[in-house]
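$ ./design --mode recover --in tokens.txt
reading tokens...
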């Protein structure tokens, strides 16, 4: 496995509009997609470099607090690249927390030794270049 790039950071935030305005209006990040409780930003290099997910209500009652949700590292562009990463994680005895098909990416999740969630993903579609809203589609189960 080889990390190609830091792909994105996902933050849990208390108020997506308030925090989103900081990244948009103060730092100049471009909003590429938004829906209730979520806002995605990109500088144009990839589908999203920052995703904000609002936590409150039921999420906070379940113990989800503002802060880092996960970081995503691009590891390739094929399902074989993803399978190789899974093999490495298993061989090294690292936990696999799940798999996801995000339409434009496919991912495996693990944790670093301090408990930070790490997403290892492959880009599988350029559809986001035509329609950035595809990154907000509901996650599908990843089948191998």
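writing sequence...
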């Amino acid at each position: 496995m080889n990390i190609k790039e830091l792909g994105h950071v996902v933050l849990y935030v208390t108020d997506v509009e308030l925090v989103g305005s900081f990244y948009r209006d103060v730092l100049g990040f471009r909003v590429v997609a938004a829906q209730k409780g979520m806002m995605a930003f990109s500088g144009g290099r990839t589908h999203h470099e920052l995703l904000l997910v609002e936590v409150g209500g039921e999420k906070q009652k379940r113990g989800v607090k503002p802060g880092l949700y996960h970081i995503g590292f691009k590891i390739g562009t094929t399902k074989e690249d993803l399978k190789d990463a899974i093999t490495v994680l298993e061989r090294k005895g690292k936990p696999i927390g799940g798999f996801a098909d995000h339409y434009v990416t496919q991912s495996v999740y693990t944790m670093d030794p301090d408990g930070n969630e790490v997403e290892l993903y492959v880009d599988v579609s350029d559809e986001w270049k035509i329609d950035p809203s595809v990154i907000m589609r509901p996650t599908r189960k990843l089948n191998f």
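exit 0
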